[in-house]
Amino acid sequence: MHAEKSIESKHNPWVIFSVVAMCTFMSTLDSSIVNVALPVIQKTLGTDIHIVQWTVTAYLLTISCLLPIFGRAGDMYGQRKILTAGMSIFVLSSAACGFSLSIWMLVASRVIQAVGASMMMSNGPAIIATSFPPQERGRALGSIGTIVALGSVTGPALGGILVGMFGWQSIFFINIPIGIIAFSMGRILLPKGLHKDETFDFKGSILFALSISSLLLVVSHGGKWGWESIQVFTGTSIGVISLLLFISVENNVRHPMLDLTLFSNWPFLAGNLSGLLSFMAMFSNAILLPFFLTNIGGLSPSKVGLIITPFPLVMGITAPISGYLSEKIRPVFLTTLGLSITSTGLFIMSGINAETSMVHIAFIQALMGLGNGLFQSPNNNSVISSVPREKMGVAGGMNALMRNIGMVTGTAMAVSIFENQRIGYLEGVLEPTAVQNTSAFIHGYHNAIITGAVIAAIGAFISINRKGYASAVKTG
After folding, report:
1. Nearest-angstrom CA–CA distance, 442 and 445
2. pLDDT (tens digit per residue) in 393-420
């Protein structure tokens, strides 16, 4: 037997939402805001491009390793304690990033920053889910989904403005005042949540982190190393062996880090799988479209941002509405419709060429924003609400993990297919002309985007077979 206690917040749940929203926006924003500053950081710190990219890779890998671990910690020790501790770590490490005098000091600071971000990202959804009644949970989780999307897509634009006006250090220093406000509000306003007297599964946590980091490193760098290289073989072997050992440990330990029986819960499994596939599909478009608009369309960075803007704009409008609707009608309808629209949009995108008007491309981006907005909110609600309350932290961490893995694998998959098809198109051509280079680029782009469309369609098929959600919500 173990003791449990739950202390509910006396504050309006939407006030609690505002604190979680600040934490969520900051942690997702820092996943992408650094990208635009990489050339300046490379020049200032005097390093090579393949090394400076570790400021991004290290952040994403660390978050992916730790999300379920800190979700479990939140279930055990209280979500407020873990989230606010994460915020303090995030603020201090942001300052360390800004004051970094070498590239490896910056990378190390980014790793610590990712630790804080994962503590916030894994426990935010659980705090939302436990603070709102089931009939309002969809709206709240839908709005958090919007914050995640906005944080991810506004990073490059905001980063460009800050770097241009105040230098690369400003993209980290801006976190400090916001973080201090969020930390202070969190300590006062957030509910303490559950506390369980259980042992923490350190062995399982280490094996999980080793497995995820190894496999994601292979996925993200396999194309550069060569898929038959010793690095890929070693990373894959370590990842698979660690994963098998992790499963063995979790099945035999009294208080596992990740309760594997959750995956026998079909709404939980289907929601995580379709969420993974949705982000894989979405990031095949997100990584390649800017290159298409720049290299084929000849657009400036500001115009590229303008063409892409309809996606987050429509998604930001649709997601809260979809979250609200998920409280009234079966979420399976919304999730399936959303992924179907996303798949349709990607199929249409796979047909664009140098003559396609920018207005047409912007319209397709709006269509895909509609699809993602319809999908994300009900899916988040489904995943979190399909588990018992005392496991919502782990569920939130796993949901965020699927999002991160989808981003990494979707990006790696799209780039790999694009390069393979582009190079294959020019095989045997010693000195390709500008027209041939353009044709090769479009050929590679089309195949990568079609793959993304098929992945979204598979996600829709999984989603339409989701069952049992309604009863889970009623008991949540």
Report:
1. 5
2. 677 777 777 877 887 788 778 888 888 8
